[in-house]
Design brief:
Layout (H helix, E strand, L loop, with lengths): L11 E5 L16 H16 L2 E5 L19 H8 L4 E3 L6 H5 L6 E4 L6 H4 L12 H20 L4 E4 L24 E3 L1 H14 L6 E5 L8 H8 L4 E4 L3 H8 L3 E2 L9 H14 L2 E4 L2 E5 L8 E5 L2 E2 L4 E5 L1 H11 L4 E5 L12 H15 L3 E4 L2 H9 L8 E2 L4 H7 L5 H7 L1
Parallel strand pairs: 1-2, 1-5, 2-4, 3-4, 5-6, 7-8, 7-15, 8-10, 9-13, 15-16, 16-17
Antiparallel strand pairs: 11-12, 11-14
Helix pairs in contact: 8-9, 10-11
The chain binds adenosine monophosphate.
């Protein structure tokens, strides 16, 4: 079912959102992007005359009640964003009465789902290698079903709008969908947009397609790099992984971050790129520092010839030009991961050059998708989040979707 075609009048809707917002030490929200992201879905349900049961996780309370992760802290912010009162259910698994008494237009926020281990469905207090683990797992899966059934019993219709957790098969993101008929379960607007954005990157590709993968390590990005290799025309690999490649090719990388056990993998990526005709773009020069600090002394040097005691913390000027050269003419762009330690103001130039080139290409008609925690932080830091085509709210979920994996949270409402 598509949310736009559904009339929620007189229905109780249970909506999985991602309200895992960052809080300061006083429990105040420091970035409400995720709440704003869910508003179109929540408002549509209320405008139709439905009542709303909102559920989410926050942080990692590991199956135990922990006031530090209580959603009560954000109840007033949710009320303000929605422009109406919000009731609170302090135990998400014992909210049947509160849900039953909801009238059209009323809103109930459930306490953190992850206060129950059943939400994630992983057995607690037992290691994978312990005897009895398989039985414990089976038992927890049964409990997870019961937990999902309880949540489902509160509502007539289920909406999943939590892209950030769509790659997890949790009670509230996937298992719950089994308890609704096909016509009474659907993706929310945010999820629809995310899925569409990934689709633009994976199937509706306008060429040339340039992907920029950065961040600290090649090992955490290998799945997505391999998948992209079949799709892109240009692949920029930047950030800390530059030095694993430089060393693999026989260079000296000084104190730079380098995965010595991934040198063969780096060579394999270079070989595959050649075989597949992908233009692999690696940094040739870098901004090297004599300490991992914003105030360190710096010098520009070749990425494969960094003096002892120095480490590459950002892309150099020649590299920045080379990156811009393949980003500017692109018609499809994906960016995940910074080109340097952008958290330090003196090492933002590489990431900034990428962001600027993406903005210019987008102005010239490219579709640009930026996703995965740190590159989103980059476009926010540089004030250009609204100058790219789409900024994804998903970290792991986005990467898994682009790796070509089916997201359980998406599949569940389609079955
Ligand atoms: P990831 O979580 O793998 O996407 O990596 C993001 C992190 O990579 C950011 O915190 C950056 O500071 C870090 N990073 C990027 N370039 C470098 C570099 N040259 N050396 C060390 N860390 C880096």
């Amino acid at each position: 079912m598509k949310i736009d075609n559904y009339n929620f009048a007189g229905k109780k809707a249970i909506v999985r959102v991602d309200f895992n917002v960052p809080l300061d030490e006083n429990g105040h929200i420091t970035d409400d992007t995720r709440i704003r992201g869910a508003l179109p879905t929540l408002k549509k349900i209320l405008a139709d005359g439905g009542s709303l049961i909102i559920m989410s996780h926050m942080g990692k309370p590991k199956g135990k009640v922990n006031p530090k992760f209580s959603l009560a802290q954000i109840k007033d912010d949710v009320a303000k964003a929605l422009g109406c009162d919000v009731k609170f259910a302090p135990d998400c698994a014992k909210a049947a009465d509160a849900a039953a008494s909801l009238k059209p237009g009323e809103v109930l926020l459930l306490e953190n789902l992850r206060f129950y281990p059943e939400e994630e469905g992983k057995p607690t207090g037992i290691e994978k290698t312990d005897p009895g683990y398989e039985d414990a797992k089976k038992e927890m899966k049964a409990r997870q079903k019961e937990f999902a059934k309880t949540l489902a019993s509160y509502a007539d219709v289920y909406v999943n709008d939590a892209f950030g957790t769509a790659h997890r098969k949790h009670a509230s993101t996937a298992v719950i969908a089994d308890y609704f008929d096909k016509q009474d379960k659907m993706l929310g607007y945010l999820m629809e947009k995310e899925v569409q954005a990934v689709d633009n990157i994976l199937s509706d590709i306008k060429r040339p397609f340039t992907a920029i993968m950065g961040g600290s390590k090649v090992s955490t990005k290998i799945g997505i790099i391999e998948n992209l290799m079949d799709k892109v025309d240009n692949l920029i690999l930047c950030g800390g992984m530059t030095y694993t490649f430089a060393k693999a090719l026989g260079g000296n990388v000084g104190e730079s971050i380098c995965e010595n056990d991934k040198l063969d993998l780096a060579l394999d990526i270079i070989k595959k790129a050649k075989e597949k005709g992908v233009n692999l773009v690696l940094g040739t020069d870098c901004v090297a520092a004599d300490a991992f600090s914003n105030d360190a002394n710096t010098q520009i040097c070749p990425a494969n010839n960094i003096p002892e005691g120095w480490e590459g913390l950002d892309a150099g000027p020649e590299t920045r030009k080379a990156f811009a050269k393949v980003i500017l003419p692109a018609k499809t762009i994906l960016w995940n991961g910074p080109a340097g330690v952008f958290e330090f103001d003196n090492f933002t130039a590489g990431s900034r050059a990428i962001a600027d080139a993406i903005v210019e290409a987008t102005d010239n008609g490219a579709f640009s998708l930026v996703g995965g925690g740190d590159s989103v932080a980059c476009v926010n830091k540089f004030g250009v989040a609204d100058r790219v085509s789409y900024v994804s709210t998903g970290g792991g979920a986005l990467l898994e979707a682009i790796e070509g994996k089916v997201l359980p949270g998406v599949a569940a409402v389609k079955e």
